[in-house]
DNA sequence: CTGTTAGCGCGTTCAA
DNA sequence: TTGAACGCGCTAACAG
């Protein structure tokens, strides 16, 4: 009875092989695979399932896609100018969130990093291979804009992370950067800080602008002084140099607000090396608390980003748009949560 | 002349549409797209290219795959028991390396995290959609083994990260964990440390075993004493608890070797909280130096993993196997580099 | 150099 | 409930 299936030339089994072996037609196998239980008898179904398992048959995704005009796949595009485009824990959490939600829904995820200097050779853009795209853009405005325009031209469901929606049919998922910044600034000012220093990356991007705006509002409202310090590439070295120069020129502030945790930790380390007490002489706060902030001493006052949740939500919106034709909203803002500590 | 192409029902243009518009046959367009320059005249080629650009035509990847029986895609499978399967910087660097190499070669990358408790619903495994797979497995041996067996059954080109090759036709790309551990241990012992404590994760995995073996060798060779301390989930809390207990039971060692940087930094923080000088009273070293180790004070003595390079190399081997039928070697070991610091 | 034909594996459609 | 025909978009293999 088990005469062995006739192998397709590719070496992979096809529906037909399974059908032959199970003594049914290919359509029956297809119906079983796609859970159309009403179309096939229980006994037949079990027999087919057993045959599939026994032969180790796996459906050919491309054939299904071609036929159904649906990819059951989404693209994740990360614009970053360093090759290690997954260096940022924020990005990786978002990607994990997207990937897990997609997997739960039986969608595949195509991941691709893009550098702004090489927008050619991007399989995700130059071919039709996904039902939608989720883009995580970093870097200066003009570069983000270039890629964004290209994405919009694809006329494909599109979700942006940490951007503002450009267009009614583009969904943006972001966190409440402004609110988080307001909370931290109030915390500092209410504890007596009146001269604040905010460490910003050399390249401003939307989330940082939001944070700065929030701090500005609090400062003007509560009569505190705010100084922006730009820290180049946000590295330990760049940040420490910028902080040193700023302090030499303007003296010690009451508080240093890191635009993110890395910059805050660099500042703490710099102050420590100068024998300046944190928080005694200068309070320090971070932003975007991830695991590694826990290794700071003193422990960092910061706000936690729900980056994984953002990815999850972004994927959910994208699949909704693909399957129902619309997003639940075009601008989705997730809350952040204040993390107490003893650095401020 | 520009009468507008007839749109395919899917809303996407097809080769045929472009051909019609350019006044050639679909085959000619296909030849242009695939760079078969000998098959088509220069003038025709330019006209076709212009038409493609003007119409914004993008080839349908699934159709090409189905026809050519090749995916031009590879899968990246990450086995991890937490949903945030991209939390580890080692993993993300590897993934970035794989992704970038693949993109350079016009391959797409399918990324999927898998938890050992849910090996069902893994599109990467249950469908035919890539030409090969690169697996990054973490967690206890038995779980890795289960997934590995499943991968092998797919009879698909397979590369493993940080494992030993199981099989002649499986390529393993790993780093010289043993050598790095030997170097660090020699450094410590030659500076007078004779009682060493090694912090290991609760779950042993191959790379950690290699490191322990290396340290053991040095200790027996140079007459030093080694104590293994298991730190549960490697978190800050777990590690500090384990270190505290070990010190209470056995007294201060001369040196604490972290199985990775996180555990080392947790130990430094613990010692600092007890007023114990590093490296004065206890030397501390790490392993797998990534960016965030730079934020340690005192700066961490560690070894740097070339994780990005490992990913690059893994992808290179995988594509070689796909395109030429064989790997350049089945066990590939990349060197690690010693990073000096003042924690030891 | 261009045109024609055929078929990759699957799923829809209709007829039985 | 099942069977047969057809075509999704593309490309290999030829014929002109």
Most extensive protein-chain contact, per-chain counts? A-B, 64 and 64 residues
What is the number of independent domains of chain A? 3
Helix content of chain A: 40-55%
Low-confidence stretches of chain A: 1-10
The total strand number of chain A stands at: 12
What does this structure look like?
The structure is a homodimer of 344-residue chains. The first copy, chain A, is of the alpha/beta class. Chain A folds into 3 domains: 10-59, lambda repressor-like DNA-binding domains (434 Repressor (Amino-terminal Domain), Orthogonal Bundle), CATH 1.10.260.40; 73-175 and 308-336, Rossmann fold (3-Layer(aba) Sandwich), CATH 3.40.50.2300; 177-304, Rossmann fold, CATH 3.40.50.2300. Chain A is 43% helix and 17% strand. Chain A has helices at 15-22, 26-33, 42-55, 61-68, 89-104, 123-126, 141-153, 177-190, 206-222, 236-250, 261-273, 307-324, and strands spanning 73-79, 108-114, 132-137, 158-161, 170-175, 195-200, 225-230, 255-258, 283-285, 302-304, 331-334, 337-339. In chain A, the strands form 3 sheets. In chain A, strands 2-1-3-4-5-11 form a 6-stranded parallel beta sheet, sandwiched between helices. A 4-stranded parallel beta sheet of chain A has the order 7-6-8-9, sandwiched between helices. In chain A, helix 1 crosses helix 2 and helix 5 crosses helix 12 (307-324). Chain A is elongated. Chains A and B meet through helix 4, helix 5, strand 2, helix 6 and helix 11 of A and helix 4, helix 5, strand 2, helix 6 and helix 11 of B. Chain B binds a DNA duplex (16 and 16 nucleotides) through residues 8-10, 12, 14-16, 24-28, 30-31, 34, 38-41, 44, 59-60, 62-69.
């Amino acid at each position: 009875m088990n005469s062995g299936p006739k192998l397709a030339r590719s070496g992979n089994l096809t529906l037909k092989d399974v059908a032959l072996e199970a003594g049914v037609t290919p359509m029956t196998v297809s119906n079983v695979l796609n859970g159309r239980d009403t179309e096939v008898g229980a006994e037949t179904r079990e027999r087919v399932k057993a045959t599939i398992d026994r032969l180790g048959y796996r459906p050919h995704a491309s054939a299904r896609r071609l036929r159904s005009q649906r990819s059951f796949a989404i693209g994740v595009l990360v614009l970053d100018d360093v090759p290690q485009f997954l260096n940022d824990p924020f990005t990786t959490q978002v990607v994990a969130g997207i990937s897990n939600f997609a997997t739960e829904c039986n969608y595949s995820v195509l991941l691709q990093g893009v550098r702004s200097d090489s927008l050619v050779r991007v399989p995700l853009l130059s071919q039709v291979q996904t039902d939608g795209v989720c883009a995580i853009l970093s870097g200066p405005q003009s570069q983000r804009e270039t890629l964004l325009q290209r994405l919009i031209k694809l006329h494909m469901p599109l979700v942006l992370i940490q951007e503002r929606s450009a267009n009614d049919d583009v969904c943006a998922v972001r966190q409440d950067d402004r609110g988080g910044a307001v909370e931290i600034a109030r915390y500092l000012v209410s504890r007596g800080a009146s001269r604040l220093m905010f460490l910003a990356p050399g390249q401003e991007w939307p989330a940082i602008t939001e944070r700065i705006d929030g701090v500005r509002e609090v400062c003007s409202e509560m009569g505190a002084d705010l100084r922006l310090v730009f820290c180049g590439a946000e590295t330990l070295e760049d940040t420490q140099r910028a902080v040193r120069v700023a302090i030499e020129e303007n003296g010690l502030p009451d508080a240093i607000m890191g635009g993110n945790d890395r910059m805050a930790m660099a500042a703490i380390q710099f102050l420590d090396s100068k024998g300046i007490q944190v928080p005694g002489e200068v309070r320090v706060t971070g932003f975007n608390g991830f695991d590694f902030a826990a290794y700071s001493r003193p422990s960092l006052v910061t706000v936690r980003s729900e980056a994984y949740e953002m990815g999850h939500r972004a994927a959910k919106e994208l699949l909704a748009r693909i399957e129902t034709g619309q997003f639940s909203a075009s601008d989705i803002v997730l809350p952040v949560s204040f993390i107490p500590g003893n650095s401020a």
